[in-house]
């Protein structure tokens, strides 16, 4: 069976998105649709659709009689999976890993605690089964299968929290885990402590031990931050400007 080729729209979106993230198309740069047609060798409708998606991500804006202007990084949608993937594939990888690790440290221990209190039994049981298989394949060094299981594990925790806003982070966590594997930031064999902490989280959730689930999850995330922190040393942070406070009483 042959794999499907990406559509022209998808190819155009990938090229432009990556060029914006890398700074090849810097903030303030103005593009013209007709120039993009010629450069990318695609139709006007393909360019229009790619630009529409980039606009929805906060990466560009269309200005009448001016063109398509690239917006600064603080305007981009930081939760979009494509934006995360493009950053992970660029020199901004370290900063992206830091932002996601800090987000996970704030959310996942709480999600684990909530899952221990609220998750359906079937989800709790699957979580333990996934953690047990992670331990087996991790010790065998089967990283591709381990990634699939690790992604499923964290998706189950976020979903099991019963908080729909936490569950929306499943895609972002998946992109982080995939990016770490793709870029060789995972050990060839997962640490034994990490395998055990996954099991500890799963068992605590299964047994309804909320505080224990939160503690084990925090250990897991803190270990990730400690391992990855050299990747973001010296990387700048993104500060989102706020609107001035109204002076009207």
From TrEMBL:
A GO MF term: DNA binding
Keyword Transcription regulation attached: yes
HTH gntR-type domain span: 6-73
Keyword Transcription regulation: yes
CDD domains, per the entry: WHTH_GntR
Regions crossing the membrane: none
Record keywords: DNA-binding, Transcription, Transcription regulation
Stored InterPro entries: GntR_C, TF_FadR/GntR_C, Tscrpt_reg_HTH_GntR, WH-like_DNA-bd_sf, WH_DNA-bd_sf
Designated name of the protein: DNA-binding transcriptional regulator, FadR family
Organism, as annotated: Arthrobacter woluwensis
Lineage of the species this protein comes from: Bacteria, Bacillati, Actinomycetota, Actinomycetes, Micrococcales
């Amino acid at each position: 069976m042959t794999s499907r080729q990406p559509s022209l729209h998808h190819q155009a979106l990938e090229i432009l998105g990556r060029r914006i993230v890398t700074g090849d198309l810097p903030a303030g740069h103005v593009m013209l649709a007709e120039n993009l047609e010629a450069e990318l060798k695609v139709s006007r409708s393909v360019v229009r659709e790619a630009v529409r998606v980039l606009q929805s991500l906060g990466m560009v804006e269309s200005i009448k009689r001016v063109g398509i202007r690239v917006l600064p990084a603080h305007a981009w949608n930081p939760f979009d999976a494509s934006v995360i993937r493009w950053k992970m594939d660029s020199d901004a990888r370290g900063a992206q890993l830091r932002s996601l690790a800090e987000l996970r440290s704030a959310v996942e221990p709480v999600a684990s605690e909530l899952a221990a209190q609220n998750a359906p039994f079937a989800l709790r049981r699957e979580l333990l089964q996934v953690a047990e298989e992670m331990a087996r394949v991790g010790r065998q060094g089967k990283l591709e299968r381990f990634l699939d299981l690790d992604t499923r594990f964290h998706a189950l925790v976020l979903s099991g929290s019963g908080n729909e806003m936490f569950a929306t982070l499943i895609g972002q966590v998946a992109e982080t885990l995939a990016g770490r594997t793709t870029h060789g930031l995972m050990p060839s064999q997962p640490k034994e402590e990490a395998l055990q902490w996954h099991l500890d989280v799963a068992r605590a959730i299964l047994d309804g031990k909320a505080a224990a689930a939160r503690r084990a999850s925090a250990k897991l995330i803190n270990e990730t931050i400690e391992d990855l922190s050299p990747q973001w040393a010296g990387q700048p942070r993104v500060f989102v400007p706020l609107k001035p406070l109204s002076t009207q009483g």
